[in-house]
Known about the structure:
heterodimer; A: 325 residues; Rossmann fold; four-stranded antiparallel sheet; 12 helices; globular; disordered N terminus; B: 351 residues; alpha+beta; MetI-like fold; 13 helices; 4 strands
Amino acid sequence: MCLTQKIGKMEEILIVENISVGNEELEILRDISFDVKKNEIISIVGESGCGKSMTLRTIIRLLPKNLKILNGDIIFEGMKLKDLKEKEMNRIRGKKIGMIFQEPSSYLNPLFTIGNQIEEAIEGNIKKREKKEMVIKILKEMGLPITTYYQYPHQLSGGMQQRAMIAIALINGPSLLLADEPTTALDVTTAFSIINLLKNLVTNHNLSILFVTHDISLANHISDRIIVMYGGTIVEIGKSKEIYENPLHPYTKKLIECLPQRYKKGERIKTIEGEVPFFKNLPAGCPFSQRCDYKMKICEEQKPGKIFFENRIVKCFKYGNIVES
Amino acid sequence: MKGILNKLRKKNLIAFISFWIILFLYFLAITADFIAPYPFNKQFRNYPLCPPTKVHFFDKNKKFHLRPFVYEYKLINPALNQYEILTEKICPIYFFVKGERRKILGLFYSDRYLFGTKEGKIFLFGTDMHGRDIFSRIVYGARISLSIGILGVLTSFFLGFLIGGISGYFGGKIDNIIMRIVEIFMVFPSFYLMLSLRAAFPINLSSFQVYLLIVVILSFIGWAGLARIIRGMVLSIKEEEYVLAAKALGLSTFKIIFKHIIPNTFSYSITAITLSIPGYILGESTLSLLGLGIQEPYPSWGNMLSVCIGNLRILSTAPWMLISGFFIFLTIISFNFLGDGLRDVLDPKNW
């Protein structure tokens, strides 16, 4: 992957610093820190309920009403998103940061045509005719026929709907695209074409993508770096290739072990025993301690802190005795 | 629109027919000036409580006439309103016949009407005790009765959407306050609320003022229930994913409510509109029936019925006076069938 080598030279457009999200009773995201560099695709991987989607919704500040950002900072192109007023935030949503979702059929309003919905997203006072030209241009770029302009969401296939969603997200030329499992609801071939589309967009549109998925092999395929999340916190960050070939954290190891393509026909596929703990009863120590094969005594008592190890960040006592501050 | 009508015809024929009946009634109301053979306040002193004129094709010698004709009626017993049919003279019915000059739709004058006779009189539905043509009064009365339904529904739907939409979208305290106010409106029996509201205003208003007052009273009563339903729908629709997507696009709250949420209640509310129009027509009829609504000589279907109340003689000797009740019935049942049909057709699950 050629993009991987460039990372060092690229500047950061999004910096997330020690974010925690929750309310008085529970904390669902804890100590999230990472950055997204220009023209980079970065994936967040983890099981359901690990807080991946919540991280995205924290960045664009669309958290459910009962949750708020407790501390930390989100810096996007030099602006502190956490301190912005709702009105100022609306000038960033859809304009500087686009977002696409898991199930395109339910994220498109069933009552309006695709053309209408893309036009609605266009910012500023632009004449109707020019708007239409813009929409048709972006539809072409997304590989959709022009007739889509006049069609309703239910008349399109899932892949076409997702392309239309991407068109809506990109119409204002954002510099960051948040993709919340955009290929999960699609079949493999359609998913593949969408992934290729996204990869091309990075170079054509000067875009960075924060890509959430539960499929670590897909993450390896698409992204430059991978963030592995578990139980509301980041357990490992590193370059995709390194993580995929040499996972450090026991959870990452298990995720990769579960991939079906690693098994021969007739072999039994391994799974991770147990379930992701609910946020209310997270263990006192490492969140993964209940399911971990390398569990030590300290794992149950203390939360592991960030350890820089082999060019990566990993939160595990296996690699050093650093306790979370 | 065409697609909806086609589906309506295939799925629910009665609703389809009802649609055309309603359209026809509104057409009558709009073109009343042209269709009614006489002005609504024209009194024929020689024809009190005249029975409906029969239209004939064969005269008494069994001779066929291509042009339909009527016989003249002559009052023989003014005390009992008995009429004799003069079969000697044939009065043919002409289309586009000349009559008194009348203003059509308030725009231009014309002295030609859809149908009429040159000699004799034609009372398709008979006359009332003042000798006024009931058919003409029905057609003119349709203007008031049918437009009150539409105006009342539009006003209360506007209020309902605005208040219910805000209440549902913002939730919390605002929702709580608005819903308690709505409940105050809902606990009063609407009939008594309507009467007392009408009683709060002077009785001797001009008929146009009364007309507006009735619209206001009816929508004042009607908006509360509607706001509650819209609020419930908004509460569920605002959790839909496309609303989250609209928020992620940075659209304003106003745009989200009125472009993404309210239109998604339309499949319900179009049905609700058609189903609640009869309530408004009935409300107007009730007020007029009790003498609190549209005043004579202006006709409305309600006040045309009010003459019959407590007058058994009329019921037995001149049952045609009740025809306006039939029109109220026809309109209401048509709206109900149409509403039912639309509910089936507009349900997105059937797409």
